[in-house]
């Protein structure tokens, strides 16, 4: 698999700039087509008093004003996206989504991509949607870029969280182009002796598999000593100066993680390093 189509969610916040810069850099590295997806704001949400307007002329003026607000937002977001996406020989386009069923329209656009890029804490997604929901509803891997992430550091030192689950295995396939392009990949196994699925030498077989695909991988076996696994991963990422975390999301069901907590929910609760999730 190659990374050839990337969708990034665009809005009018400062957080949008970080994710668009990241997505544009990733698209250039992989010679991928970049799609900026903007959800046009509903002007009705800005002034509820408009619902009390009466009279033909007043209603006409209100509709004109709403159209102007939406058009201005559309153009401003488009200019910002194009300023960051327009690089040498870059392939990109800007799309807008509006209407009542925005969630399903957005989902349709994402289904035809190899990767979806969103932000944190502001994801840029439709109201009520989360990165996890986008992942689970489309099956397309989602890369979450924190608003504070500096320009220029894009997936050079990758931490791959391996727990020998179906989801982690899927994450390898989904992220393989990114792993190949990285300078180094740390396959991190936490509490390996607690999981018989790892085999005799935890992490070794999957590292060999990655190396056959041209990935510069090494295995790091870590002990949690009772600490939450997500915190062990975060601490190692900081120590190793990782600039991307890759994991298979929800090895347990999302409902179980909601009730009892889990690695996915904890890592996504506070994203400080770009994180690619797959399911």
UniProtKB/TrEMBL annotation:
It holds the Pfam family Usp. InterPro entries: Universal_stress_UspA, UspA. Residues 4-146, 156-277 form the UspA domain. Belongs to the universal stress protein A family. This is Universal stress protein. The lineage of its organism: Bacteria, Pseudomonadati, Pseudomonadota, Alphaproteobacteria, Hyphomicrobiales.
